[in-house]
Amino acid sequence: MPDETIGEKAKGVAKEAMGKLTDDEKRQKEGEAQQAKAQKRDEAEEAELEAQRKRAEAAGHKGSEVRNQD
Known about the structure:
Blueprint: H1 3-22, H2 25-69
């Protein structure tokens, strides 16, 4: 998990907690949304890393298949 999303999640948690403490539903919802956005960003970054791993793996397999055909 990247540092920037950890910070965003922490800000969201704090904002949500402040909203609950002050009975400010708007701030609470903003905090929840901020946390959800950071979570989605984490998931997107993980998916991209997985795609990179699979591309690298596929490139390695293609190379060995080409050599075996010669």
